[in-house]
Amino acid sequence: MNKLWQIAKKAPDEFKEKFPEINPIILQLLFSRNLDTQEKIDEFLLPDYSQDLHDPFLLQDMEKAVDRIYKAIETKEKIVICGDYDTDGITSSAILLTIFQKLGVEDITTYIPDREIEGYGLSEKMVKEFIKQKVNLIITCDCGITNNKEIDLANQAGMEVIVTDHHCQGKELPKAFAIINPQANREKYPFKTLAGVGVAFKFTQALLSDTRCEIENKEAAEKWLLDLVALGTVADYMPLLGENRTLVKYGLVVLNKTTNLGIRSLVEKSGLELGNLNTGNITFQLSPRINAAARIKHADEALNLILAKNPFEADEYAEHLNAFNLTRQQLVEQTFRKIKSDIGDDPKEMILVSLGEYPKGVLGLCASRLLDKYSRPALVLTKRKNEIIGSGRSLPNFNLHQVLSLLKKYLIRFGGHPGAAGLTISPDKFEEFKKEILKIGKKQLKKQDLVSKIRIDAHVELNDIDWSLYEELVKFEPFGRDNWQPNLLLTSVYLKGKQMVGKIEQHCRLIIDQGKKMIYFGSNHKMEGIKIGDKIDIVFQLDINQWNGIRELQLKVIDLRKCKM
What we know:
Among the domains are: about 5-15 and about 455-560, CATH 2.40.50.460; about 60-220, inorganic pyrophosphatase (n-terminal core); about 345-450, Diaminopimelate Epimerase, Chain A, domain 1 (Roll). It is built from 20 helices and 18 strands. It has helices at about 15-20, 25-30, 40-45, 50, 60-75, 85-105, 125-130, 150-155, 195-210, 220-225, 225-235, 240-255, 260-270, 280-295, 300-305, 310-345, 365-375, 400-405, 430-445, 465-475, and strands spanning about 5, 80-85, 110, 135-140, 160-165, 180, 350-355, 380-385, 385-395, 410-415, 420-425, 455, 460, 490-500, 505-510, 515-520, 535-545, 550-560. It has a five-stranded parallel beta sheet, sandwiched between helices. Strand 4, helix 8 (about 150-155) and strand 5 form a beta-alpha-beta unit. The longest helix is centred in the middle third of the chain and has 33 residues, at about 310-345. The chain is globular and about 75 Å long. The mean pLDDT is about 90.
């Protein structure tokens, strides 16, 4: 599928004249990010932990929630932390459990639902179990904002609930004792897009700042949790701007020298090294292994890894996650092949696939791959007893959560974000739902929306590509959503050499003018018709290749085409 190359608007001369000392390529990147004053540039390039984080008490119910925790400590109440089963929920649960234990909470447990059997969030069954256990206080992590009925049931039983979440609320907020969620309609917190782990961390900051806190080194207790904040925030695909950028920037520093035995073991068994970890390693190596626990067995395996108290325990759980991840990869590949054969090469404006009984854990992954491959919103559903359960991923200009809200009369439940959502449908409503959502997709999505696009940040010349440029680009890290690693464009260069590499020759090593080396991953079917001697245009990212102690610049190809000139 041909991709549309979208070149960023050029920085005007008056902008360049304001900052004559800055490399023109870097100026172009700053302009594209709307960083048009020295203050904005400094704030972005030099985030300051002591200055850039917002007061946690700006969240409406924070003071109320903090008081409730200290009351629970004083009266020795029984607390349960109920978290989601993904990396964000697991890291959120681990942060709150760690800090509550340090504060002196004696009777505390965690409960993460079984993804396959119980599904997302609080359930009536879980609340009834907590009633049997004589729980006094339920604290949700990365879930709870749409669990109105379940929270009503807890209230009726004499329990109280503190919701910490970051998902969109329903029509009405649940009647919880306290709700900490920057996405709640009533909130005036300055930064709306914290991850669930970011919300849990703000709760932690508030608890540590209270005069009743008896932890000796509060600053250390807070900052040594930032590795988990970075993991959860990046894994949950949150924008790496504003407060998230500061949390992840400092979180990566902590992650690279983490004392967490489980994370250290997982890093090693993922083939990575402490000291060199970045957001890409979280996205492609660490988070998939953590998420694989819930997809294949149970999220407790991942939580136990993070909470491991000795190296042997940590290694055991890390090996489990590695094995789960391998199984997950095989399952997704098998499922995706079936989906591709079902939908063919020319899907409609929106892809909706209903499978037989497939593991729920692969639905979202398959939806993501469909979105990437076809540049269309995708819903993948499977049957479960008397329900149809699904997961969806969407384009920026098609708000999936909003669309599901319009169709809620067909749904048993739904939740999520504009770009990713989950849903449950009664089988007798499925055909009507399918008809209506495809109709909305056809009406809202235009032809130009469905063309896969590649963002190009700046045009460069071969002579620009050196270690100095690389060091300047590093200042833009951490990379991720809304602060993507810059895509650079080279035009009219000659292909001097190419060699297919990899176990099945799925990648290609290229050499262009001036002996510059490039790697094009997954390019076995993309190099057809391109031969040595051709003049080509290349979109690439500037990376480092380290091998046998040798460190060299490497151009990672995103796309290429024959030069039209």
